[in-house]
Amino acid sequence: MLELGVKFLISYFIGSLMGAMIIGRLRGGVDIRTMGSGNAGGTNALRTQGALFAFLVVVVDVGKGVIAAGVVPGLEVPFAPEDPEISRTWLTMCCAGAAVMGHVWPIYHRFQGGKGAATFVGTLIVLGPLLIAVVLLVWLIVVMLSGYVGLASMSAAVSLPVWLAFTRLPDDQPLFIYGTVMAAFIIYCHRANIQRMRGGVENRYTKLMLFSRKKQPAADDEP
Hints:
mainly alpha
């Protein structure tokens, strides 16, 4: 259990390294949490700082998911040797989830982070790279039809366990459980977006919409 606890914390600390804050400091101290929607994610970065800034933010946020799921489980930690009683598969899932949690609640930034989607996608690059096509396709379809980035992120997250349930169970049960937990977590992180949609005041990202009649403000949701 010591190995699991230590590597979970390492993954959480890696997840807490916010791409928006890192790139912002390199750009002269820009803090996008004081701009636009106030969220430290790629969408707000794109809207307030431009495409290059947003791209670099997404690279960092996706990359830490890759590191947490693909590198941390195999690290040799001197004071926490490999525990033969811990499944390597479940250890990987726990490290992946810890990185997503770190992105949402970063310890270095007063627990004010993004909403987990980009880092979640990063973990899928390691856990199931072919599944990314399903997730991104659902995200794009929902954005094009509704304009709601938050709804698209939630729908994409939910599509993963649904797809796995029909195509990979019972063989990939650990991945199914991970996907289900992460989908529920991402929905929880978008609870404010859900309230705004129910109240009819959620902004739409009209640039990708197929049937947009008039221009509206960019969406407040972040990955």
